[in-house]
Specification:
It is a single chain. The chain contains eleven helices and 21 strands. By secondary structure, it is of the alpha+beta class. A hairpin with a 4-residue loop joins strand 12 and strand 13. The longest helix has 18 residues. The protein is globular.
Length: 402
């Protein structure tokens, strides 16, 4: 594949959001020709892609035709027409990560079964649909626990629990937290994973990469805090403030997962640490991830460069930390929708170590990801102080019509 890393290499990326845009920014350093497939003619990646193709990531013909235009095909979103990817692979198009792996990850039920088969710690679960769930809850007494998925993995059908749609959920959508019978009106329609609600102490993430030769590199463990309204990452700390043993365990688990999948590419592994200090896998994503944006400035090799190295069969880059960092998502303010207006950028840039990334989305909506800010400092404590100041300065609203 190394011979392809020239001005003649055509790299196709399915979906042109901010992840696609930042992937292209890295690819441009190697003079790679980039193609983007996206339905939205104003998607962030269009402004810098070599070629923009309008089409749906879910449409068989659109995905197939797009794949035939390029030498290597990758993606920045999971929700893609798998049949088209499989045909492209069969016809010799390089598709990475592999369509079979994407098919497994697309389905949260198959994900959970994969963890069980490979002895990866995950929360107890049961696969069902909303109608069956309601019937079983109504027919069971208080504290009832339905039959186990496996003898040592009890599957809860009692409160509290979390319902996740098996397919289509993204950025907090497709998830319902059911604490009691009063919340049953929140249940989502469709095939679901029902998980025992974890008593979460912390949420962490590890991004890991693997290339064709089997070389594996983990990025430092990061710690995430979430906006409770948007159910999106509000703040990210690198490195995570956890014991070294927990960090090592998370990296070992991420390595086991990507090796068990035999995956080539970048894999984001999200974990819970519960109140008993157990490290539990939550979900995985086979692509660059929001929890890795800080790597552009804080790590020797960014997650975007590492993804390219992995899928192009190149040696993986160093994942050594350059400086502690805090990453903040720039979200559209609640109650504002329309042409985007940013406030506080100039004041934020006056703070040493502040790096601002705007994604180029022209329209803001409540809680829409409009950009991110990475704050670097010699100590994490100082980075947190600066990040707190930036958080108060930055506002994303909409211009009012005159």
């Amino acid at each position: 594949m190394e011979r392809l890393v020239t001005s003649n290499l055509k790299l196709g990326i399915i979906a042109g959001g901010q992840l696609g845009k930042m992937l292209i920014q890295e690819a441009s350093k190697w003079d790679i020709i980039t193609y983007i497939l996206d339905q939205d003619v104003e998607c962030p990646a269009r402004s810098i892609a070599s070629h923009f193709i309008q089409g749906s990531n879910l449409d068989y013909d659109d995905v197939y035709r797009f794949g035939k235009m390029v030498d290597v095909l990758t993606f920045e979103i999971e929700n893609i027409n798998i049949d088209a990817l499989k045909r492209l692979k069969a016809e010799g198009v390089v598709v990475k990560p592999d369509p079979d792996i994407l098919e497994l990850i697309q389905d949260k039920g198959l994900q959970k079964e994969f963890y069980l088969r490979n002895h990866i710690p995950t929360s107890p679960f049961r696969l069902t649909d909303s109608a069956t769930l309601v019937n079983q809850l109504n027919s069971s007494g208080p504290g009832h626990r339905s039959p186990a998925t496996t003898p040592d993995q009890p599957a809860p059908f009692s409160f509290p629990f979390v319902q996740k749609l098996r397919k289509g959920g993204y950025d907090g959508r497709g998830v319902a937290v059911i604490d009691s019978s009063d919340d049953l009106g929140k249940l989502l329609e469709g095939a679901s994973v029902i998980e025992e609600k974890v008593d979460i102490a912390k949420e962490i993430s590890v991004i890991v990469a693997r290339n064709k030769k089997g070389e594996v590199r983990c990025f430092p463990v990061v710690e995430m805090t979430f906006d409770p309204q948007a159910n999106l990452v509000d703040k990210l700390l690198c490195p995570a403030v956890i014991p070294a043993e927990q960090a090592a365990e998370a990296q070992q688990l991420a390595t086991r997962i990507i090796e068990s999948l035999k995956m080539e590419g970048l894999l984001a592994v999200e974990f819970f640490i519960d109140r008993q200090n157990r490290v539990i896998v939550n979900e995985i994503a086979p692509r660059p991830h929001n929890s890795g944006h800080h790597t552009i400035e804080s790590i020797v090799t960014s997650q975007f460069e590492q993804h390219l190295r992995a899928i192009l069969e190149l040696p993986l880059g160093s994942t050594c930390l350059k400086l502690p960092s805090v990453m903040i998502n720039i979200l559209g303010a609640e109650g504002h929708e329309g042409p985007v207006k940013y406030e506080g950028l100039t004041e934020s840039m006056a703070i040493e170590g502040v790096k601002i990334h705007l994604y180029g989305k022209k329209i803001t909506k409540p809680f829409r990801k409009m950009g991110h800010i990475t704050v670097l400092s010699g100590s994490q404590e100082e980075a947190l102080k600066k990040a707190s100041s930036v958080h108060q300065l930055i506002k994303v609203t909409a211009w009012k019509e005159k």
